[in-house]
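Running this now, will post back.
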Amino acid sequence: MNTTTETSVTERLSALPTASISDAMDALGLHGTLHGLSPLTHDFRATGPAFTVQYAPAGETRGSVGDFLDDVPAGSVIVIDNEGRTDVTVWGGIMTEVAAERGIAGTVINGVCRDISTSLQQNYPLFSRGKFMRTGKDRVQLVAVQTEVTINDVTISPADIICADADGALSVPSARAEEVADLAEKIEETETRIVASVKAGSTLVQARKDLGYHDLQWGNK
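Update: finished.
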């Protein structure tokens, strides 16, 4: 996918709710929903190409958390896999301040974050398994950046498009992003038409049937 196309698809996906994107991916036989990851607040939204980060429990080498931030392009969504750990954090206030200043779109963490008041003050989107104050410094170590990571059973590659909102987060494979966006837009349009039909006097069952709603959502099921 060239840069122009990728930007266009990212913009289209950013205008869609994750619910419709998820329905489109279901219909296409794709799985990308990141179960258990939630936003700090309902009005957070982030869409952008993934910048992947892998952590593991620390060995003998001491180290800090977050030095990779110097390499993250503006507009990216940082995806951190800390193996789902909730006993140590891998994101805090300094990282939020830096990421917000540099125009990073948001951060999705398979783990926990802290200093959430800073995220709220900066309006910087964070999605995680929760919040906890205990630092990951010297407790985790950076294994790799910009390689494939697997969260639950979803494999995320660099440049896959991350979409996250009040309902959670998901990953759209970059090679299928246009196809997903096309179908998600159709689902959104159809849902709007269903509501209009019901307001005009139709039953919900009939409106859904007339507009082929079930088949649109579950085309490959």
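Residues 177-199 form the longest helix (23 residues). More later if anyone needs it.
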